[in-house]
Amino acid sequence: MKKWFALLLLMISVLVLAACGGKKYEPLAVNEAVDTCVICNMQVKDDAFATQLITKEGKNYKFDDIGCMNEWKKKNGTENIGMEYVRDYNDKEWIEFNKASYVYDETLRTPMAYGVISFKDKASTEAFIKEQGVGTVLTASNLSSHDWKQNTDMMNMDMNGGDSHMDEHMSEDHEGMNSDKEMDKR
After folding, report:
1. Distance of alpha carbon 116 from alpha carbon 141, whole angstroms
2. Which H or E run contains 83?
3. Residue 116: inside a domain, yes or no?
């Protein structure tokens, strides 16, 4: 009788621990040959601007710009999201959306001209702002009330012979991510 009771207790403990562990939502690799943004239908580049979210059912959605991911959340709600990921601008590592730090400035070049760039920590955002001379530090919480307007001048420039979304948006030294003043120098 004691053996059965001990076995039953062990089985209950294992089930409780398994249930408490929660479901893990891991980011998927970007495949530039097939991945397109579910909002704007542009190619998702394997770069610092790629974002993704995973629903609680395990469905993965990829985006070419954090603004597109925000648009998806606005249309579909957030209650069914298991996890959201952004990339660190400097090393392209995946970061949980809520743990990242962000820089916003309307003149920052991002694929869909939302001007929001993600970093793994606040120190990196502050260094970027110091280097670029523009930007405001934001948190994931700040982004929930962010305006999310696209810089239409930048979008029009891309369509009229400027750097296009399909071009590389960054080099090793982050050239091309500067303010409009930097772009005018080219």
Report:
1. 14
2. strand 81-87
3. yes
Q: Is the dihedral of CA 94, 176, 182, 172 positive or negative?
A: positive
170: amino acid identity, one letter = M
Q: Evaluate if pTM is beyond 0.85.
A: no
**CA-based nearest residue to 170, from 83, 16, 49:** 49
Which ranges constitute the DSSP H helices of the chain?
Answer: 2-21, 66-76, 122-132, 140-143, 152-159, 180-185
Q: What whole-number distance in Å separates Cα of residue 117 and Cα of residue 51? A: 11
| 61/131 Cα distance (integer angstroms) | 32
In the three-class reduction of DSSP (H, G, I as helix; E, B as strand; rest coil), residue 184 is classed as helix
What's the residue count for the chain?
186
Which residue has 């394997």 as its token pair? Answer: 46
Give domain status of residue 19, yes or no: no
The verdict on residue 9 lying in a domain is no
**What's the CA gap between 24 and 58, in Å, rounded?**
9
Residue 42 in domain: yes
- The Cα 126–Cα 131 span in angstroms is 9
How many separate domains does the chain show? Answer: 1
Q: What is the pLDDT of residues 62-75, one digit of tens each?
A: 999 999 999 999 99
